[in-house]
DNA sequence: CCAGTTATGGACCGATCGGTCAACAACCGC
DNA sequence: GCGGTTGTTGACCGATCGGTCCATAACTGG
């Protein structure tokens, strides 16, 4: 009994996210968002609220999707340690685009408590996913039993974020991959049996 | 034969840098800069040029000072491997403030070629400083001779940047230190003699 | 103490910011 | 096909943006 929307919510959120991703939150104007999405200001406001709400929505969706993808990659790996290797190597794939969550955290964590809170939660979720896989690798005999899974998961996460940052900073893909493989070799050595 | 300046250039640059550091480049207005520095707009423009020039100046100074401090820390360490350990542990000290260069790179490297270029140069300089110290550690017998100094330096740099990012993201100091020490233990193990 | 020069600070500029709103368009149930 | 409801669009708003400019201040050489 009313006019239907002329857009797919997911498409708009993807386009808006890519715009925020490319330029950052503060440097993105509403005009940028209307151009990227094809919607007018009023439609954006009617559907998603103001600029900040819209941004938080894209960030939440990104975190949700990323965590789901990570969980799948970790769980579907035959040996847990291979999932962990993939986790590290994935940090070398983003290149200059970087990670949307990492970029947003760096730009806004210091001034936007809401973003800081989401970042904290997201990183904690990731650590728990990785830690569970570390435990599985221990059960499978690919990692020493003495390791604290959560602490080691944080180390792996820091290594991955380091890779993401070096990619963002323009380190060539070849060298970035080399660093990722070096991390794999030093942090996840093939177990001696 | 003219009116002298009423400010110390270094003081103004420090205050301006801290403002950019706290809020980011795009989110900092000229009014923020005049408030932080105590100077009027005209004085800022007369002394340093426009907002972007002023920002680049603070970034260049930061890089110069940071590299000088790093070089000193690395060179004054009795054993080179201790300097490398300090390099990693330093990544855990910045906490939520983060690193000015890292924050600026993340915010602007994708859209500001000038910043991207400075970031590339700066990280390359740091890698060379660290690589030289890796070579010294090899000569001192604290690191295996087979390691490629530059490649390993990049790994150490990525680890440090990962620590910086996790600190920026709000990881508690205690856990951050734990990760830093874990990196030290896994990447720079006490040599067996 | 005056002439010349530079520094200062804030009024001012056009442009753009995020956000609002009203007129109009498109659809559904009846 | 009509009334009611929601979506769409772009003109419009006050605020703020980065940047300019000028009247005035503060100093030095002569």
Question: What key attributes describe this structure?
Answer:
mainly alpha, Tetracycline Repressor, domain 2, homodimer, 0% strand, 193 residues, DNA-binding, 72% helix
Explained architecture:
The mean pLDDT of chain A is 93. Chain A is an all-alpha fold and 193 residues long. Chain A has a domain of 132 residues: Orthogonal Bundle (Tetracycline Repressor, domain 2). In chain A, 72% of the residues lie in helices and 0% in strands. The structure holds a DNA duplex (30 and 30 nucleotides).
Could you give the topology of this structure?
The structure is a homodimer of 193-residue chains.
Chain A: H1 9-23, H2 30-37, H3 41-48, H4 51-76, H5 80-90, H6 100-108, H7 113-139, H8 149-168, H9 173-187
Helix pairs in contact in A: 1-2, 1-4, 4-5, 4-7, 5-7, 5-8, 6-7, 7-8, 8-9
Chain B binds a DNA duplex (30 and 30 nucleotides) through residues 1-6, 29-31, 34, 39-43, 45-47, 50-51.
Keywords (chains A, B): DNA-binding, Transcription, Transcription regulation
DNA-binding region (chains A, B): 29-48
Pfam family, one (chains A, B): TetR_C_13
